[in-house]
From TrEMBL:
Residues 387-398 have a biased composition (Pro residues). It comes from Fundulus heteroclitus (Killifish). This is C-Maf-inducing protein. The keyword Nucleus applies. InterPro entries: CMIP, LRR_dom_sf, PH_CMIP. The keyword Cell membrane does not apply.
């Protein structure tokens, strides 16, 4: 199946083709070649979708559609007598200047006097042509009306042609609107639609309304004639396919397309015509909020793909076609649009329960403009994207989503939550103790469960693309799912794969999104932790999340404090089961004095000593503590300068060879040390002056220093690769009185922030920075 062949570029404008050339669109290619056996509903007579583009004009000129303008007007009556013939001669003609407006029904003047006292209806114009006889007035358009002729004279030939094509377009659109508003025979209507499409394709006018006006006429026709046969539907869709190549379908037409996807998902029209339309929507749509029916149509199209014999394999190929064959998707709007479609589809599956929970208008009511409380309709059954068949087979038992109650966890969270009755409750608290969710079991019909499963699998597919994963993690960081979906075991199982992909990604912008978007709110880290609603693996995913977070810039006291306050129990349980990451966490809590309660410290020590890996790491911790105390006892030099070109390994070897408990001044200028040496620097408790001039010491090292070297007074970062992300961490080092940030990536805002938060800072060098 080749979805890429349906992607909506275009193949050039009509003016690039010769009269005898015809362009066969991509939709005529077999997009479902290897899966054509799944289209059992396609009639033999419905051939492949083909179209042809014709040249718009012989000279290839393009014009903007006129809506109003200044022009000279002259009316010439048909001569009936010798006197009237004399009065209408070219020497006695009277020209009037008018500002004309081309409305939907006629030609009117801003000053309705003289020749243009009344509006000239398009229906009264019998013929429209450019003046071509000898000695005719220059740059004139001739309008033949009953009893005479109207001449419109422009300033030049281009304006004359622009008026001519605009009037011609308005006149023809007026005619098609009247004809298609009162259809009699559908075979004639279909011919008129094809003629309308050809007119739009061959027009030399360039304007959005040139293609949108025919689409609106056809959508109105379809809305007023809902009893058409399926074959008539397909014929009309095939006829208007060329107009959809570079245009979004209007809302009413989207409703018609949705209906076709629901009723005939295996139709070739769905694949050959709708595929490039949906591809264009996903690539170019900027806001589904302005046109929610575009999102609904995309949603129904994906569900129609899922109904084919290949099922989710067809959907997977479609997603791959949207991403492209390279490692980087060239269309930045595809991922946000796909995520928006998935979220709306998942939300719709629980719409009834969400509405009964918060008494808010439903999606359908919002689309229909119901905003006031008294406009609400009585509660309806669960609205699904696709209704059940009229004669369904024997119903399968509904899927029960049981919400697990954990009173101990809920009570603990209530005690540890923010004080005050106005604070916003956490998501996990709502899931555990909400009366609306605990008193009822949510029953999803089989159809809703299929919809939920389809779009959950799409999120799973999106997470497999490396270039999409950072943006996907950011979009999902606020947990934009209804609480009922997070309590659905099947959905959270598919979602768990996505979170696992985030936890395995080494990029900080990806795995940092596992944490909550702001303090006081729960994130995926809390949701999948032991005791969380979505945790079903005894904390394996939680351990992998902690591991990746500890491996990046989150190896700080702040992160360890949050674990000690909220997740100490799960950490100790996993450490007891031999999880190495959790053993390391407990050791760091002891080393950094995170735990103040002596009983808790003894419990952590007992937990570490209960496993082989924990016992070994605890012994290493005790050795480090003894070495540190010995280092502080012996003293050592107060000043130290490393030779140039020294590395992190050289520094570690030097500091481990002697006692440096009294070291106050350390110069690493012009060495090759990096942020990795920060692990050694934080073991120097007396360090007050640190020179890192022209080294590769970066942001990660600065963050670690700011956590442990509170007594540092002088810091030289000249010509280092530090940025605002690391420099902002220095705001916690209140003892700093001298700071050199010469030739760094410091910005003016960060500099002002540091000056405000470091009251003792007196000597600052910001030359050759943005703040200079």
């Amino acid at each position: 199946m080749d979805f890429n062949s349906g992607g909506g570029g275009g193949g050039g404008g009509p003016n690039e083709l010769h009269n005898n050339q015809f362009y066969q669109c991509e939709e005529s290619k077999p997009l479902l070649g290897e899966m054509s056996e799944g289209h059992n509903n396609t009639k033999p007579g419905a051939g492949p979708c083909r179209r042809s583009l014709h040249p718009c004009s012989s000279n290839g000129m393009r014009y903007k559609l006129l809506h109003e303008g200044d022009i000279q007007v002259c009316v010439v009556k048909h001569p009936r007598t010798f006197l009237s013939k004399l009065l209408t001669s070219k020497y006695l003609r009277r020209w009037e200047p008018h500002h004309l407006t081309l409305t939907d029904s006629g030609l009117s003047s801003a000053t309705p006097t003289g020749y243009m006292e009344t509006t000239l209806s398009y229906s009264s114009i019998e013929d429209l042509q450019l003046l071509s006889w000898d000695n005719a007035p220059k740059y004139c358009v001739q309008l033949s009306i009953p009893g005479g002729t109207i001449l419109l004279q422009a300033a030049n030939s281009y304006l004359r042609d622009q008026w001519f094509h605009s009037l011609q377009w308005k006149k023809k659109i007026y005619k098609y609107r009247k004809v298609l508003n009162n259809p009699s025979r559908w075979d004639v209507v279909l011919k008129e639609i094809r003629a309308l499409v050809d007119m739009a394709l061959t027009s030399p006018l360039q304007d959005e309304s040139i293609h949108q006006a025919p689409l609106h006429i056809i959508s109105t026709l379809l809305a007023e004639n809902s009893n058409l046969s399926a074959q008539d539907h397909e014929n009309i869709i095939v006829a208007i396919a060329p107009l959809l190549e570079n245009n979004h379908p209007p809302p009413d037409l989207c409703e018609f397309f949705c209906k076709h996807c629901r009723e005939r998902p295996r139709s070739m029209v769905v694949i050959e015509v709708f595929t490039p339309v949906v591809q264009r929507i996903l690539k170019h749509n900027m806001d589904f909020g302005k046109c929610p029916r575009l999102r609904l149509f995309t949603q129904e199209y994906i569900l129609a793909l899922n109904e084919l014999n290949g099922g989710m394999e067809v959907v997977k190929k479609f997603i791959h076609s949207m991403h492209g064959p390279t490692g980087q998707c060239p269309h930045p709007r595809v991922l946000p649009n796909l995520v928006a479609v998935c979220l709306a589809a998942i939300y719709s599956c629980y719409e009834e329960f969400i509405n009964s929970r918060d008494n808010s208008p439903s999606l359908k009511e919002i689309r229909n403009g119901c905003q006031q409380q008294n406009d609400r309709k009585p509660p309806m059954p669960l609205r699904l994207l696709r209704p059940e068949p009229p004669t369904p087979p024997p119903p399968s038992p509904p899927i029960l989503v049981e919400l697990e109650r954990n009173n101990n966890t809920a009570n603990a969270k209530r005690k540890g939550g923010p004080a005050g009755g106005d604070s916003e409750p956490n998501l996990i608290d709502c899931l555990l103790v909400s009366p609306a969710l605990n008193t009822l079991s949510i029953q999803l019909p089989a159809q809703a469960d299929r919809v939920l499963s389809c779009f959950a699998l799409i999120l799973k597919m999106l997470s497999d693309y490396d270039d999409w994963r950072p943006a996907l993690a950011s979009l999902l960081q606020p947990i934009p799912f209804p609480k009922e979906a997070l309590a659905h075991a099947k959905f959270t199982k598919e979602l768990k794969y996505v979170i696992q992909r985030f936890a395995e990604d080494p990029r900080q912008e990806v795995h940092s999104c596992l944490l909550s978007v702001r303090s006081g709110k729960d994130g995926w880290f809390q949701l999948y932790s032991p005791g969380g609603v979505a945790c079903d693996d005894d904390g394996e995913l939680f351990a992998s999340m902690v591991h990746i977070l500890m491996g990046s810039c989150y190896k700080t006291k702040k992160f360890l404090l949050s674990l000690a306050e909220n997740k100490l129990g799960p950490c100790m349980l996993l450490a007891l089961r031999g999880n190495q990451t959790m053993v390391e966490i407990l050791c760091l809590m002891l080393e950094y004095n995170i735990i103040e309660n002596k009983d808790t410290q003894l419990q952590i020590i007992s937990t570490l000593q209960s496993t082989q890996v924990g016992f070994r790491m605890y012994e290493q911790l005790c050795d480090r503590q003894r070495e540190l105390k010995e280092l502080q006892r012996k003293g050592g030099p107060t000043r130290l300068t490393l030779p140039s070109k020294s590395t992190d390994a050289d520094l570690a070897r030097l500091l481990s060879s002697g006692s440096f408990g009294n070291l106050e001044n350390l110069s690493l200028a012009f060495t090759n040390v990096t942020s990795a040496c920060a692990e050694q620097l934080i073991k120097l408790p007396s360090l007050k002056q640190l020179n890192l001039w022209s080294t590769q010491f970066g942001d990660a090292g600065l963050r670690l220093l700011s956590e442990h070297l509170a007594c540092l007074q002088v810091l030289n970062l000249c010509e280092t690769p530090v940025t605002d992300a690391g420099l902002l961490a220095l705001s916690s080092m209140k003892s700093l009185c001298s700071l050199n940030m010469n030739s760094t990536k410091l910005t003016a805002d960060t500099y002002e922030d540091l000056k405000a938060k470091l009251p003792n800072l007196k000597d600052v060098d910001v030359r050759y920075t943005e703040a200079w």
